[in-house]
Design a protein that fits this description.
globular, HAD_sf, HAD-SF_hydro_IA, single chain, hydrolase, 10 helices, about 10% strand, six-stranded parallel β-sheet
Length: about 220
């Protein structure tokens, strides 16, 4: 028998704040500028849901360390500018949080600095206060389970009663590795088939999430 869900762990980018579309556009630009042209699908496959260290490692392997450093600096500057100018929350997420009667937190591949900015711009920061966890706090990023296990343990919940809301293939893989149920949000950039798998419910409308969580 499946245990009832007691804690909801949200990814940040693409689940709470609509940063992924901005990041995708910027990475397409940078790939063309720096010698690694990629289309949107390849960038989603390689980068979406991965830590900065993982992305930088891929770029360094392809283009060299100096180019990877240049890519990162330009990316951060352009993303910060785009976030301040045009970032919005994921449609429906405030309604979901308003109606959620379970404890919840964030566990993201992004840094705390990045989340302070994105959650601040969208007005979501007060909803989470000290319940924000970053991959910088653990040894391995997604798809390893470390971050989700760290978040659950800090919040005081066993993995089997946790549900993870993710929008990347690496995020749902990390949830499965942690022994948690996952809810794969396909309303963003990741194709639904990339999210599907064991212990995973795939959905494409954020406002549907409360009913899905209630169903377990």
């Amino acid at each position: 028998m499946t245990s009832p869900i007691e804690l909801v762990i949200f990814d940040c980018d693409g689940v709470l704040v609509d940063t992924e579309r901005l990041a995708l556009r910027i990475n397409v630009e940078l790939g063309a500028e720096l010698g690694w042209p990629m289309d949107e699908r390849e960038i989603v496959d390689r980068f979406l849901g991965r830590s900065n260290a993982s992305v930088n490692g891929q770029i360094a392997e392809r283009l060299g360390a100096e180019a990877a450093d240049t890519w990162e600096k330009r990316y951060v500057a352009r993303l910060n500018e785009a976030v301040d100018r045009e970032l919005t929350e994921v449609p429906g997420i405030s309604e979901v949080l308003d109606g959620l009667d379970l404890p919840y937190c964030i566990a993201s591949s992004g840094s705390h600095e990045k989340m302070r900015r994105t959650l601040g711009v969208t007005g979501l920061a007060p909803r989470f206060t000290d319940r924000i966890f970053s991959t910088t706090e653990v040894a391995r990023g997604k798809p390893a389970p470390d971050l989700f296990l760290h978040a659950a343990a800090t919040m005081g919940f066993a993995p089997e009663v946790c549900a993870v809301v993710e929008d990347s293939q690496y995020g749902v893989a990390a949830a499965r590795a942690a022994g948690m149920r996952s809810f794969g949000f396909a309303g963003g950039l990741t194709p639904a088939e990339w999210l599907a798998g064991p212990q995973t419910v795939v959905f494409d409308e954020m406002r549907a999430l409360p009913a899905l969580l209630a169903a377990g």
